[in-house]
Amino acid sequence: MGIPADTKIAVDQADRFLQQLQEAAPSVAVDRTEESRLSRAGDRWPEAAKWSAAERERHLPAAVISPSSVEEVSEVLKAAQTAGIAVVPYGAGSGVVGGVVNDGVFVSLDLARLAGVPAFDDERGEVTVGAGMLGADLEAALNARGRRIPHYPQSLSLASVGGLVATRSSGTFSSKYGNIEDLLVALEVVLADGTIVRTRAVPRSSTGPSIAQLFVGSEGTLGVITAVTLRTFPLARDSRFRGIAFDDLSGGLATVRSILDAGVTPAVIRLYDGDEAAHLYERSGVPGEGRALLILGHDGHESVVASEESVALAAAAAHGGADLGAVPGETWERTRFDASWLERGNAGGTMIADAIEVSAGWPELAALHGKVLAAMDPHVDKAYAHYSHFYPNGGAIYFIFFTSGTDRQEVLDRYRNAWDAALSTVSEAGGSVSHHHGVGEARKDWMYREHGNALQVLNKVKAALDPAGVLSPGKLGLAPQAKGQAND
């Protein structure tokens, strides 16, 4: 796998693989045009936007392969293992940490054609869908039947269902409905040797460790997810969104914990610091004056929604919260998929905008906000944060930052230093360096620091399922060159 992509040997290796593939599965679509290869060289990772032409060339796949069935995926992987060429699954390219970025000799396995028509099982309350279908398209199809999957990441219209599972995604309604792993019932996956595995769709099973969950968050390293079965829910009969202002974050955090301890679980709980709250105050036309802003969303049966909101507002008042009414909450709900700040912040050659989402337990959660912002401060122009997902034992913080430099190298140095400062601070505090964006290139060197020698379990699973190392080599910190990793 380590042969440079610009050598004659690499070209011969790719040619040999493609010839073997077309002999075994002539119907598989293969595209070697530069335009197609360029479009699959990266995702929405901000650092990739600053690549030089030479850097982009180094990450080009030898070809883009687009299977239309699970059987074709199987043939691709069989041929890849025989030829010894790496395969990097590609969903819809919405990731922001470089999950599809690779180098050396590899092909991009584009799963977009694995979409088709979802198979609805209304009696069981489940839907089975091809990995290539976009999350928003699946949600629209379900809504037309009076159902939904309340999994709403900001990238819903950009992300494939398979990609959501492969990166262990979380959505804005996670506090009530859980994350993607909680919604997953079963999956279909193709192993590195071409074996097609289908797990059984049951509400729960005690027949050993969950095989389906093994592939959640695996980022293409253990197998290629080709279809998933997910739980569905009825459309909410009522939904209410509200904004509550606090003089500081401590009152908001105390309120959230009081609400959860009371046994009430809002669908949406988002607590913005004063700096980030400013844009919501401005959009909603409600004076904020630098105060922290708590957005609460309740949905479901109308009587339950009303009761939950009553309990939540009482808890907020007890901790100094000022009820701002529905407008700030409804403004958030209306604009929740807007990520234009990311596009604007990355529009210039010497600017980068990005977000870092981490998680921690309640004892560390409050202090991490200030500690991380202080650690990042020397390396950024501006940064702010919000708490975006909560659990009975802690929550997640989402840091947004902007940095610039006099030239491309300076801005990249400042950007990488900001990431290192943030993740070091979180790791030292005992938190997790990723809550829902996954590992990709941005975090692979932090895997051993987070998992310690427990990472050897994943190393051994990888060695067993993919002994030739053809699936997404180097991802999840499993490559020997990963910082601090031992060869367990």
Describe this structure in words.
The protein is α+β, with helices and mostly antiparallel strands and 488 residues long. The chain has four domains: 8-110, Uridine Diphospho-n-acetylenolpyruvylglucosamine Reductase, domain 2 (2-Layer Sandwich); 119-234, Uridine Diphospho-n-acetylenolpyruvylglucosamine Reductase, domain 3 (2-Layer Sandwich), CATH 3.30.465.10; 238-335, Alpha-Beta Plaits, CATH 3.30.70.3450; 340-445, GMP Synthetase, Chain A, domain 3. It is built from 18 helices and 18 strands. The strands form four sheets. A seven-stranded antiparallel sheet has the order 15-12-14-13-17-18-16. A five-stranded antiparallel sheet has the order 5-6-10-8-9. The chain has a four-stranded mixed sheet with strand order 1-2-4-3, with helices on one face. The longest helix is centred in the C-terminal third of the chain and has 21 residues, at 408-428. The model is unreliable at 1-5 and 481-488 (pLDDT under 50).
Spell out the blueprint of helices and strands.
Layout: H1 8-24, E1 29-31, H2 34-39, H3 53-58, E2 64-66, H4 70-83, E3 86-90, E4 106-110, E5 119-121, E6 126-130, H5 135-143, E7 147-148, H6 161-166, H7 174-177, H8 180-183, E8 184-190, E9 196-198, H9 211-214, E10 224-231, E11 233-234, E12 238-246, H10 249-261, E13 268-272, H11 274-284, E14 292-300, H12 302-318, E15 322-323, H13 326-335, H14 340-345, E16 351-361, H15 362-376, E17 382-391, E18 394-404, H16 408-428, H17 447-451, H18 455-465
